Predict the structure.
Amino acid sequence: METRTSMPVSVPEVVSTLPGPWQQRQLAEVNDAVVRVARFHGEFPWHYHDEDELFLCWDGTFRIELEGREPVSMNAGDVFVVPRGMRHRPVADEPAHALMVERPETKQFGN
């Protein structure tokens, strides 16, 4: 997928192509970051990143479990930033989709 383009990218169209839980696609590059969309369903493994990670709940609901803190509940339209170095995992009881803003080199399963 072309990520630097003058044409709009349809998030619903990209979401419809995600084959299963925890699959993601890159939507765009902006400055030194990438915007990705992912399908959440079930429990993702605990992990951390060396940089902050922004989550925008696109549809459905999910929670972000944080080591040593109360989980953060996410509903469509909610934004939350997981601070760098914090162990976390998204958990979705039903399918949900989220946009994430990360560095291009960020690994899905963390560092």
